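hey so i finally got around to running both of the ones u sent me last week. sorry it took forever, my laptop kept dying halfway thru and i had to restart like 3 times lol. anyway pasting them below in the order u listed, first the sequence line then the structure token line for each. didnt double check formatting much so if smth looks off just lmk and ill redo it

first one:
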Amino acid sequence: MNKSSKRFDQIYGEQAPESIPWNSLELPTSIYDLIKNKQIKACRAIDIGCGLGNYSRILSKMGFKMTGIDFSSVATEKAQKLADKELLSIEMYIRNVAKLLNDNAYYFTIAFNEEDDYFEGKGKFRETPTGSVLYFSNPNEIQKLFSPLFHILDLKNIAIPGKNGNHRAYYAFMQKKNAV
């Protein structure tokens, strides 16, 4: 267990879900639009960094066969209990995500926009009021990081609803390239 996963275990273990800034009960509009516009149909999907599994539960109710993955054992345990309580068949795992990527599969990621001024400070890594550290990015960096392994199908600036207003972020919809 690394320092970050220990900190997230502490956050999920000690704080009420409603006080965790990123714990949203709403599916981001950008994901909803992909489904509504039939760019993504109900299929097997992985919620990476699932936390308490809110998105997994919403998508499961929309017909997706969900797997939730987080490096916090406390979060995944609570996520599984919430899914079971709603009688949803969702698998929750504590995993190293890098080992789970499949060729030609589609992936969706969100990165906080480095120009988001809600979180205090500047730079790539910023501490939140909960003591967790978040990473902030920009479109050029996202292209540079992901393009060697992924075809970037869509990359845009979006707003994500938060507890105290919207957060600025980038969303990337990608397809994994074949391994050479």
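and the second one:
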Amino acid sequence: MGASKYNKAEMIRNMDNQNQRVLCVIKSLFLNLRNVHEITSTF
């Protein structure tokens, strides 16, 4: 019982870490796209 509870908590924490990484990647991609748009619109 205790072991499965620990594994579940570990799984949730790993998922949270992965979600944070994905959010960071999406955010940086979005910022890059916006920068490119601003650069191209000035020309």
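quick thing i noticed on the 2nd:
The two ends are 64 Å apart (CA to CA).
anyway thats it, ttyl
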